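Hi everyone, sorry if this is the wrong subforum. Our group has a chain we'd like a structural model of before ordering constructs, and none of us has done structure prediction before. Sequence below.
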Amino acid sequence: MIELQIFLEVLPGKEEKLKITFRDIFVPAVSIQQGFISVHLLKYGNAMRCYQIQLRFETEQMRLAWVASDEHQDSFPRLAELCSSVSWQGFELVI
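Answer:
Right subforum, don't worry. Here is the predicted structure as tokens:
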């Protein structure tokens, strides 16, 4: 299993738009992908505009197929445009 953690620093005044875009555009786009397991949007405790997406796929190949999909090319840029920075880290779940 693969987990991708995407770190987002949201632009001032764009937090609500990020939540709506995640719920209404990103989740439907990713959840139809082969190998999709789960996705969550987290907000760091007291941090004002720091969010994290946790995304799980069965395999790295299935995650890469998602990245290459039309759905990703449409939905992810809509999230990214609401952020001042976006970074990510991928993990293979061991246990």
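For your construct planning: The chain has a mean pLDDT of 96. The first strand starts at residue 2 and ends at 10.
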